[in-house]
Amino acid sequence: GSVCIRPPDVSDARILLLADMLPAINLQPHGNLLWLRTTSSAVLQAVPNADLAELCILQLEGCSLLTALPEPLSQLTALQLLEVQNCISLSSLPGFMGKLRCLQQLVLAGCVGLYELPVSIGQLTALQRLDLSGCKQLSTLPDTIGQLTALQRLDLS
Fold first, then answer.
1. How many CB atoms lie within 10 A of CB 26?
2. How far is CA 146 from the centre of its chain?
């Protein structure tokens, strides 16, 4: 497989920056899309359904109406970084999170409405970094967190 983590290159069609104010996103085929990002979108309510099998980085920041991560994300088997920051309406993560076996970094910083993590999080054996800083409603962690043998950094501040 290819190595997906690389510096952004805006001239490369494999990288797509989502427009901040699009209420609906319609992705057209762009070859091997590796990086998908949106920031401060007050209108983004769902992540688009598209063929994103090669996606390695998904960043959603400040999407205040995003309440859940949709089932199609379970197909992102190449995903290495999932960054969902300051998405204040996100209350829980879906059980399919355990299917993201290549995930190395899960950043949920500032998701103040997040109150639980799925038991399946223990299946993320490649996870090295888990950032739960600012997740004020999160009072307990599932016992399976102890199965994250590659975990190097856990931020609960």
1. 8
2. 21
Structure tokens at 9: 């290159």
Strand ranges, E, within the chain = 15-17, 35-39, 57-61, 81-85, 105-107, 129-131, 153-155
Residue whose token pair is 């998904």? 58
| 3-state per-residue secondary structure call for 81-116 | EEEEECCCCCCECCHHHHHCCCCCEEECCCCCCCCE
- Tens digits of pLDDT across the chain (157 residues): 334 433 333 323 233 333 332 333 334 444 444 555 555 544 444 444 455 667 788 888 888 878 888 777 788 888 899 999 999 999 989 898 999 999 999 999 999 999 999 999 999 999 999 999 999 999 999 999 999 999 999 999 9
Distance CA 145, CA 155 (A): 13
Amino acid at 84: V
- Full-model pTM: 0.75
Q: Both ends of the chain: CA-CA distance in Å?
A: 36
